[in-house]
Amino acid sequence: MPQSSSNRPMQAAVYREFGGPIRIEHVPIPPISPDGVLVQVMATGVCRSDWHGWKGHDDDVKEHGLPFVPGHELSGIVVRVGRSVKQFSVGDRVTAPFILSCGNCRYCHRNRTTVCSNQQQPGFTYWGSFAEYVAIPRADRNVKRIPDSVSFVQAASLGCRFTTAYRAVKQQGQLQQGESIAIFGAGGVGLSCVMMAASMGANIIVAIDLSNEGLELAIQLGATHVVQASAKDCCQQVQRICGGDGADLCVDAAGFAETCENAVLCTRPAGRMVQVGLPIGDHRPQVPMGRVAGKEIEIIGSHGFAADDLPELLDMVATSSLDPAKLVRREVSLREGAIELENMDKGSPIGITMIVRFNESKL
């Protein structure tokens, strides 16, 4: 049952300087807008994107200013409803994508809500879900009910990595049954791409990464082949596996210069390459545009996920054609989740860490 969200403070993971300590603090429960809902968070994922925000890499977080609460992969229970909300009631089990579109800009009118001009994002444009409660504006447009057969952990697991993979592989990449796909990066997004490709009936699924542990997990999740990214003939291996001239679809899920370049090099003539990993830093890829033009390779960007598509993804989980919880490696407390985020300084963990306990009795 949802807990009372009266005037008592809530506990949240707060950082007050970029790269500084993330501490569990008592803070006010966030107010809601007339079109919003207040959600008692039951599960929230620890994502590399939250690390980027904490480190000061994200412009939205910097524009918001400090202190700040991360978290954008969430599920929970509605405990308060704004006066203009029509579709939700207290007690509803819900989730939402991290892009909350406005519905009024030119891109929303063109049904391109993932590039909404006025989008809001929990954990980036305002305080996020590393907390007992999170406010979700524009609820009727963006919040979706969770089917009874889908757990809070499963729903929160969809929040960023699987929704991002769904858009990259199915919507932007247009993967077809029987096609080949090469996925560069076996982190959270890359492994989600592997699972998505397997659920869609791809014939050849190649995962490429430096981490042997990540590649082993990729095999368990549906990859038909793996290639060690450090191999000098990495691209040649991928091309051979995919019939000699490359994959029908290549996805850069890592965002490094080399993975972007290799994804283009491993795409067959007239194939598609999707850039979904977000690059950081000054080392820019040298995209072989001569190959792109001469082989008529399509390069497609992919970002986020539209709220209107979330019921389809939730239905895939409800019908057991997709189980995002297979990627969950640890279920932890809010304090442990904050430590996990800080530890990403040392590298990204394999799989998803999910925060499921939010009230620390001793602070």
Mean pLDDT: 95
Could you give me the name of the CATH homologous superfamily of the largest domain? Medium-chain alcohol dehydrogenases, catalytic domain
Rg calc: 20 Å
Top CATH class of the largest domain:
Alpha Beta
Instruction: Give the helix/strand class.
Output: alpha/beta
GO molecular function: oxidoreductase activity; zinc ion binding
Domain Enoyl reductase (ER): 19-355
Pfam families: ADH_N (PF08240), ADH_zinc_N (PF00107)
Keywords: Metal-binding, Oxidoreductase, Zinc
Attribute tags:
Rossmann fold; globular; 363 residues; alpha/beta; Quinone Oxidoreductase, Chain A, domain 1; seven-stranded mixed β-sheet
List the helices and strands and how they pair.
Elements: E1 10-15, E2 22-27, E3 37-46, H1 48-55, H2 59-64, E4 74-81, E5 93-95, H3 106-109, E6 133-136, H4 139-142, E7 144-145, H5 152-172, E8 180-184, H6 188-199, E9 204-209, H7 212-221, E10 225-228, H8 234-241, E11 247-252, H9 257-265, E12 267-275, H10 289-294, E13 298-301, H11 310-318, E14 328-333, H12 334-342, E15 352-357
InterPro entries: ADH-like_C, ADH-like_N, ADH_Zn_CS, ER, GroES-like_sf, NAD(P)-bd_dom_sf, Zn_alcohol_dh
Cofactor: Zn(2+)
Pfam family, one: ADH_zinc_N
